[in-house]
């Protein structure tokens, strides 16, 4: 018998943000059993923590179709659930996952992760226009050339007007093969106290959940884009609002450290709310 918690991550209230199942007691399960559990919940991701100590834990993260080396909202949600159960102590912890060690901090109502830049750069406008067309948008909706960036998982980024973010549709073309797994469409605005704010949507073609209501790994990579594109060349704070079009409003708080447009560290934080808990049978048992 497995126990689990269901939490909403990057949420300012329950029944918002991105849903996550944190499944306990999964030691010894096969990869296929883990995938079947994730498919049963059918959330964008399900987390399976093991080897939990007072300051660290291992985790495997599965979509309904397979495993990911890293994802943002499972990282924050798993850490929150383990700390709420009294299994993690103190104000910080380390998550060990397929992408390596992830630093975590608990700050009031927020959980914060730190990620190292992997890669960032512009890509050809022709590629950007193909992606824009696949999202049902027009060429003049695109502002600039587009970026691809990774702080653990690679995403393409397309800056568009704010109304174009709302008009974008589920990716109708073939899954991209240009070195990224998901496409972020976003618009920028100035927030209070100089904070950059963004209205964003994240599309992941080919997955069981093709649009994500809150995407921490994309939010981390977005910090690299903001530094590289000159929006935050010397670093700073940013806020992403995502998921409203899905009825799952989400708020992701980002912070990037950068010098002359080159990012050296990025952090992403969000709120977590417990929704429920329960037990389930082991697949095939």
TrEMBL record:
Pfam families: PhzC-PhzF. It comes from the Bacteria. InterPro entries: Phenazine_PhzF-like. This is PhzF family phenazine biosynthesis protein. It comes from Tessaracoccus palaemonis.
């Amino acid at each position: 018998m497995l126990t689990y918690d269901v939490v909403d991550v990057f949420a300012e209230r329950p029944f918002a943000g991105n849903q996550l199942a944190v499944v306990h007691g999964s030691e010894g399960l096969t990869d296929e059993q883990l995938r079947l559990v994730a498919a049963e919940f059918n959330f964008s991701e399900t987390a399976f923590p093991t080897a939990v100590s007072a300051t660290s834990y291992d985790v495997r993260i599965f979509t309904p179709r397979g495993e990911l080396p890293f994802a943002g909202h499972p990282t924050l949600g798993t850490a929150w659930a383990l700390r709420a159960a009294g299994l993690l102590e103190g104000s910080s912890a380390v998550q060990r996952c397929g992408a390596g060690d992830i630093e975590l901090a608990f700050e009031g109502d927020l959980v914060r992760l730190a990620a190292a830049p992997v890669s960032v750069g512009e890509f050809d406008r022709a590629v950007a226009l193909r992606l824009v067309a696949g999202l049902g948008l027009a060429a003049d909706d695109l502002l600039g050339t587009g970026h691809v960036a990774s702080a653990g998982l690679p995403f393409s980024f397309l800056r568009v007007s704010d109304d174009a973010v709302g008009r974008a549709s589920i990716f109708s073309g073939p899954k991209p093969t240009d070195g990224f797994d998901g496409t972020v469409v976003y618009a920028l605005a100035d927030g209070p106290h100089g904070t950059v704010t963004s209205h964003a949507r994240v599309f992941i073609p080919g997955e069981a959940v093709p649009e994500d209501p809150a995407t921490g790994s994309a939010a981390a990579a977005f910090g690299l884009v903001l530094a590289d594109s000159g929006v935050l060349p010397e670093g700073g704070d940013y806020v992403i609002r995502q998921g409203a079009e899905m009825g799952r409003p989400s708020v992701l708080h980002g912070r990037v450290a950068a010098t002359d447009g080159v990012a050296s560290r990025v952090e992403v934080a969000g709120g977590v709310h417990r929704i429920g808990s329960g037990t389930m049978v082991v697949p095939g048992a």
